[in-house]
Design brief:
Helix content: 25-40%
Structural class: alpha+beta
Low-confidence stretches: 2-8, 13-34, 36-42, 44-64
Strand content: 25-35%
Oligomer: single chain
Largest sheet: 12 strands, mixed
Length: about 210
């Protein structure tokens, strides 16, 4: 009788251990599945965040201060004109405005053109207009008519524009070189007694 009871006890113990092992295995298996799902979800979120960050970075670069590839160091484009409402008298200075042509000058318009000022959007008819380019060193001579940027002044010297917005909306002026003895210091004197940096000189072209 004792042997039978012992036998049943051993069988019961084995069944209990088997059930316990099965339960643990199931728990371990379930935990493994849960961990796998969680890791995949985390990886997916991380990957999405990375892609969004890259997209945001690309957008930031795209909306940065854009400069057309054909613009020069003064942010001036080939289609730009400088215009005035009067002729430069050869002394002092006159203001000139960066503009775009709306109606090209022709014999039908008495050689006047309709231009729109980039800064204000105002349109005017005028026969005083110039294309321009940055001056070469050999062109910087006494008596030469030049165009210079007005709104980047330091220590009484007028320097070239530092950014596109300033270059295209702030004032420029036309004057004549009157003294080149300080070129070794990086500037010249122009009519009106103003000092203009060498890199801030443009040559007007008809």
């Amino acid at each position: 009788m004792k042997n039978i009871i012992l036998l049943f006890s051993i069988i019961g113990l084995l069944v209990f251990m088997a059930v316990g092992c099965t339960s643990d295995s199931r728990n371990m298996f379930g935990d493994s599945i849960a961990n796998t799902v969680t890791n995949k979800a985390f990886d997916s979120m991380t990957s999405k965040a990375t892609e969004e960050s890259k997209t945001s970075s690309k957008k930031s670069k795209a909306t940065a201060d854009y400069v057309p590839s054909d613009a020069d160091a003064h942010f001036i484009q080939p289609s730009d004109y400088f215009i005035a409402d009067k002729e430069f008298p050869g002394q002092g200075y006159i203001w000139v405005n960066l503009s775009k042509v709306v109606t090209a000058p022709s014999t039908q318009t008495k050689n006047e053109g309709l231009f729109m000022m980039v800064g204000s959007g105002k349109e005017i008819w005028t026969k005083y207009y110039w294309k321009s380019r940055i001056a070469a060193k050999g062109e910087i001579k006494i008596g030469k008519t030049i165009i210079a940027f007005n709104d980047n002044r330091e220590d009484d010297i007028y320097y070239a524009p530092e950014n596109k917005e300033g270059a295209r909306t702030d004032p420029w002026f036309m004057a004549k070189i009157t003294d080149t003895t300080d070129m070794y210091k990086g500037y010249v004197m122009v009519s009106g007694g103003y000092k203009v940096a060498i890199d801030n000189i443009r040559i007007p072209l008809k």
